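Field log, afternoon session.

UNIT: design team B
ACTIVITY: writing a sequence onto a fixed backbone
BACKBONE:
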């Protein structure tokens, strides 16, 4: 009884909790994150304190025979509550409803925990049992009720989890559905664990010895169920995080053509404080968008509404929808303005525009920077505008119309 089958999953839960700890510190008020960390904590504690070597050490340290039994049962009850709370927070809904349901779950299992401790204190379990306490004391007053109570509370949680996750899985798709179905599978193992425990205990009530079901088969089912369920909880969250990161880095990459187009004319290109390459993706995107806006601001005196209007008409004629045509038109105006700025090294247009107030951003409407950046690389309308602007830049410079 070296406890390896218990300590390995306990260590895995500890590693997962360590990975989550920094995010928990930063976002303590996030109920979903708190629920995930609570589940990992209780799962790890259950495996650690349910290991036979730990049971013996706790009993010896406290001097109370079999005190590990109510400790493990209380941790199992807390773990069941944390699973239910996580699913409630995960599914979401009106905050006041979610908080009310969570309070009821926590209150209910708190009552169970108090009852477990009370029944153990009232009972008499003088002989230490490391792996077969459930069946050995199945007929002992108060200890018997304690065993039935913890098994019943776990059964209620298991049935509730399967019902909630199974019904929710029918309403969603993708990674979330896969995770919910994995959780259901894990809790089927947990229900099988409870069935073997109940079978062994009831057999004892009837004078039959099926202790091997409780001491040998049940721990294997419990370990498999807990690890499968933990995978189901973590998979959608991890995949969602990976998907969000992929989307952010994709946005950063797709903004590249527009950023490079405007980089040379950005007023802050040389003196801006640059962020490190290992900074979060969101910060990288924000920096790139800021550079783009700075560049467009410096180009405003060179924006030619005729170029934009012509490009918009050409894009619509080529089959682009209004949003795409607007992005192509903006990109064409930007690329023409870049070349107009290059053809005006003395900044005559900028000097003449200083006395003219620029219209508010809301008057022009928001620009889709990603669409503009893609259009710079792919749109033939933008390529044509770039060619015309390059031709004009070789001739005498003239001030664009705005």
């Amino acid at each position: 009884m070296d406890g390896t089958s218990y300590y390995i999953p306990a260590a895995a839960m500890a590693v997962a909790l360590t990975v989550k700890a920094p995010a928990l510190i930063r976002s303590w008020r996030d109920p979903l994150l708190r629920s995930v960390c609570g589940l990992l904590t209780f799962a790890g504690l259950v495996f650690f304190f349910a290991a036979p070597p730990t049971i013996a050490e706790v009993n010896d340290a406290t001097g109370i025979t079999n005190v590990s039994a109510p400790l493990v049962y209380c941790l199992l009850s807390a773990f069941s509550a944390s699973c239910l709370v996580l699913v409630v927070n995960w599914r979401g809904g009106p905050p006041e409803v979610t908080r009310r349901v969570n309070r009821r779950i926590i209150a209910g299992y708190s009552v169970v925990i108090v009852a477990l401790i009370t029944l153990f204190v009232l009972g008499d379990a003088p002989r230490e049992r490391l792996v077969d306490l459930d069946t050995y004391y199945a007929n002992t007053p108060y200890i018997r009720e304690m065993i039935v109570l913890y098994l019943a509370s776990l059964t209620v949680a298991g049935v509730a989890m399967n019902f909630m996750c199974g019904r929710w899985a029918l309403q969603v798709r993708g990674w979330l559905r896969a995770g919910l179905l994995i959780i259901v599978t894990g809790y089927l193992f947990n229900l099988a664990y409870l069935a073997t425990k109940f079978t062994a205990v009831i057999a004892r009530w009837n004078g039959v010895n099926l202790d091997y079901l409780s001491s040998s088969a049940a721990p294997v089912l419990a370990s498999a169920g807990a690890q499968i369920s933990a995978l189901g909880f973590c998979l959608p969250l991890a995949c969602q995080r990976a998907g969000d990161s992929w989307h952010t880095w994709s946005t950063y990459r797709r903004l590249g053509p527009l950023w490079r187009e405007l980089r040379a004319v950005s007023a802050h290109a040389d003196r801006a404080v640059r962020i490190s390459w290992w900074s979060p993706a969101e910060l990288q995107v924000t920096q790139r968008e800021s550079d783009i806006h700075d560049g467009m601001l410096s180009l405003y005196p060179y924006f030619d509404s005729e170029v934009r209007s012509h490009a918009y008409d050409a894009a619509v004629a080529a089959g682009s929808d209004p949003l795409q045509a607007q992005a192509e038109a903006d990109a064409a105006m930007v690329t023409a303005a870049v070349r107009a700025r290059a053809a005006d090294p003395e900044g005559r247009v900028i000097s003449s525009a200083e006395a003219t107030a620029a219209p508010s951003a809301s008057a022009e409407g928001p620009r889709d920077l990603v669409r503009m950046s893609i259009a710079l690389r792919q749109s033939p309308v933008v390529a044509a505008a770039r060619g015309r602007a390059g031709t004009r830049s070789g001739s005498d410079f003239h001030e664009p119309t705005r």
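LOG NOTE: The chain has 17 helices and no strands.
NEXT ACTIVITY: expression trials, pending approval
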